[in-house]
Design brief:
Length: 344
């Protein structure tokens, strides 16, 4: 039986699932430990006492550069990107009522990548310009996929199949753009397309942080409607949910969140697919919950980046290589589980 904790305040009563609370707490503690280990021990050892001294404005110049210009921006961006991708994946999987309804499977991440690559290769855009182009590319791709899926009845299977087809076409477009670009722009775009945290500065952190501060609160306010939509449109309508408006609002916000994360680091694979489902299994919840999923996504990307930095040290792999390798195994398992469920 599910245990719930009721928190009361004047005019407010919140019912919180106890298991979800302690799972979220455990994930937060693990994420904090991973961040501390990454900041202290990856590469040149920085004792905690020296880190505290640097954060207070002291410390040696070389140590300040390592901590403030290299490690902290990277780990902060990993946290924000992982959380953003997980939230976006949780929304899409809830709306589609399918664990395969993830933005990187149905083409939305690839559409964001196309917009960003186009801006980099053709217009020479910087972080801000590529972010705007990624948002536009993701939203346009989402509208195309949903529009084509709706023409066939709007079934979940058709949505996934249409998204996979659109993603394949956009991959070809990205490859063509890179093949026709100048050598420096092509190299930059090719590395970006893998998904990487290498060389990222505070500028990327600020851009993504500001975007998420604007986009995530409305998603959290719509979380209750999302849970009702996950039960099905008929059930949601019977509970008074304005289905078309709510679905469109959630979709636009989730695409924008995914797009700005993609603009910051490139299309990091499988975090949006795996994090919500890992969270659902840990919390044993029938619905994907946004905040626990965000914590899981942040933890997954920090751990993946830790592996990317250490597995071939001193060389640093793009984090997308690690998430792609792990995510490929996860996707194979998920498809196998879906097949057994459909044929059981």
């Amino acid at each position: 039986m599910t245990r719930r904790l009721t928190v009361r305040a004047p005019g407010i009563a919140l019912r919180l699932d106890v298991r979800t609370l302690w799972v979220s707490g455990a994930l937060l503690i693990t994420a904090f430990a991973a961040v501390v280990f990454t900041v202290v021990a990856v590469g040149i050892w920085l004792p905690l006492a020296d880190i505290v001294e640097i954060l207070r404005g002291g410390g040696r110049r070389a140590d300040r550069f390592i901590l403030l210009d290299l490690r902290l921006p990277r780990v902060c961006l990993a946290l924000l990107t992982g959380a953003a991708l997980a939230v976006s994946g949780a929304v899409f999987q809830s709306l589609s009522r399918n664990p395969l309804g993830s933005p990187d499977i149905v083409g939305f991440t690839t559409g964001s990548a196309t917009g960003a690559v186009l801006s980099i290769v053709v217009f020479g855009a910087g972080p801000a310009g590529s972010a705007v182009a990624a948002v536009a590319g993701g939203i346009v791709t989402a509208l195309i996929v949903y529009g084509l899926a709706a023409r066939g009845g709007g079934s979940v299977r058709r949505l996934v199949l249409v998204g996979i087809g659109i993603a394949a076409m956009l991959v070809a477009v990205n490859s063509y753009l890179i093949s026709r670009a100048r050598l420096d722009a092509a190299q930059s775009a090719a590395v970006w397309l893998v998904g990487t945290l290498n060389g990222r500065t505070w500028q990327y952190v600020y851009l993504l942080g500001i975007a998420l501060a604007v986009l995530v609160p409305p998603l959290l306010l719509l979380n209750r409607r999302l849970e009702m939509l996950a039960m099905g449109e008929v059930s949601a309508r019977s509970l008074g949910v304005p289905v078309p408006v709510s679905r469109l609002s959630l979709m636009v916000l989730a695409v924008a969140v995914c797009a700005v994360a993609t603009a910051a680091t490139g299309p990091v694979a499988f975090v949006a697919l795996a994090a919500p489902q890992v969270t659902r299994r840990l919390t044993r919840s029938p619905a994907v919950q946004l905040l626990p999923a965000a914590i899981t996504g942040a933890l997954l990307l920090v751990l993946s980046d830790l592996v990317a930095q250490r597995i071939l040290a001193p060389a640093q792999l793009p984090v997308g290589v690690v998430t792609g390798a792990v995510g490929g195994v996860y996707l194979a398992w998920l498809l196998s589980a879906q097949w057994r469920k459909g044929n059981g």
